[in-house]
Amino acid sequence: MAEHLDAVLRTAEVPDYPGAMNGIQVEHLGPVTRCAVAVDASMRTIEGAVAAGANLLLVHHGLFWSGVQPLRGRFYERVRRLVQHDLAVYSSHLPLDLHPTLGNNALFARALGLEPTAPFARFQHISVGVMGDADVDTATLADRARAVAEREGGALVAVGMAAGRRTRRWALCTGAGASSDTLREAAAAGVDTLIVGEGPHHTGVEAQELDIAVLYAGHYATETFGVRALGAELERTFGLPWSFVAAPTGL
Q1: What is the mean pLDDT of residues 231-239?
Q2: Residues 16 and 88 both lie in one domain
Q3: 124 and 174 together in one domain
Q4: pLDDT per residue over 12-26, tens digit each?
């Protein structure tokens, strides 16, 4: 099952941050009988997976974002619960973000009624996000993004909005997608609307100076799409039942 996911997601080929550790992070005795999917590997999602009767937890943000650390405190408790319940963990970060059919970016774009036609958001030799053309009222696009954010326990923040503004070229990068780099890339590509999960305060200032509207729909909310798609992929391929464990942060 993990080999199938690694192949579909091209895990070995896609670069990522050191803490991502894509693939199997925790083994179990198996076999897999039920899968739980979640955005983050946390005590909330581990307990949710146990309550659902799952013995595989598939996540977007794995256990090791803080780097190497001793098995103490909260980290120890996470690992103890995983071992106690023979619960495996599989994590996929950037490979899941950029996948053309199962990925967070492509699926979020299509949920907004947008069709990606080009890559966006360079990271090393890959592009994580997507970009395309449209002719839609930016306020309408903001309403669609707001619905996604609120459905997942968050809220939309929009900057650079003006009455009658239309989106004709958009770019999208889920999660922490707003940065000086992505704004420069957007401006160079003629983008008028950038859709992201979150970003630091200065990106709102820079965006207004560049006349780019930015829709911040929430890191958590914009990255619920991929893990759900992977759950459905395992069900199609292996007949494995799955469920989503909600653990919103509001961010």
Answers
A1: 98
A2: yes
A3: yes
A4: 999 999 999 999 999
Q: Are residues 21 and 88 in the same domain?
A: yes
Q: Does the predicted TM-score (pTM) go above 0.85?
A: yes
Indicate whether 113 and 214 sit together in one domain. Answer: yes
Same domain (yes/no): 65, 112 = no
Secondary structure of the chain as H, E, C letters:
CHHHHHHHHCCCCCCCCCCCCCEEEECCCCCCCCEEEEEECCHHHHHHHHHCCCCEEEEEECCCCCCCCCCCHHHHHHHHHHHHCCCEEEECCHHHHCCCCCCHHHHHHHHCCCCCCEEEEEECCEEEEEEEEEEEEHHHHHHHHHHHHHHCCCCCEEECCCCCCEEEEEEEECCCCCCHHHHHHHHHCCCCEEEECCCCHHHHHHHHHCCCEEEECCHHHHCCHHHHHHHHHHHHHHCCCEEECCCCCCC
Q: Give per-residue pLDDT as tens, 124-144.
A: 999 999 999 999 999 999 999
CATH (domain of 217): 3.40.1390.30
Q: Tell whether 232 is covered by a domain.
A: yes
